[in-house]
From TrEMBL:
Pfam families: DUF7344. The chain crosses the membrane at residues 117-139, 145-164. Keywords: Membrane, Transmembrane, Transmembrane helix. It comes from the Archaea. This is DUF7344 domain-containing protein. Residues 16-91 form the DUF7344 domain.
Amino acid sequence: MELRKERDLVDTDIHAILGNRRRRHALDHLRETPDTVAISDLADAVAEREAGESPPPEDLRQSVYNSLHQSHIPRLEGEGVIEYDRETNEIRLTESAREVEVYMEVFTRYGITWVEYYRLLGTVSLLVLLLATMDVAPFALVDTVLWVSLFLALIAVSTAYQLWTRRSLYLRQFL
């Protein structure tokens, strides 16, 4: 792949990149893949996300392939977010993609931010513990230590899930 000089992206560039759903889907798939991705495989993955079915309809897959090839890949390459090898038709994220990933990482797959999720979990856990301590039924029926253990387990599982869904980012940092 051709080596390009990395550049800093400004907020307006990042918002323009993420302003298109198809580009976001493509970047999501590239983030989840620690190696290079063939453009045809990327088109399949993006079409599956758009259609919500696997395999995606052939006309949608072809439409995604064409728009990636003609519009989105050149745009992402021009911004320095990806490297595209025209000989092998393979794509990989560059170091500059991390600037875009910061904006993408904020949200869970369910549309809320991780900050909102952890804030809600913390608030609910404190409320439940307060009610249990004040002997309010049914919360008082469960020992406070069990409530604390339950919420600590939820936080641990949530953190593990968040790390697991970002595993390719961490792997790419070591490669």
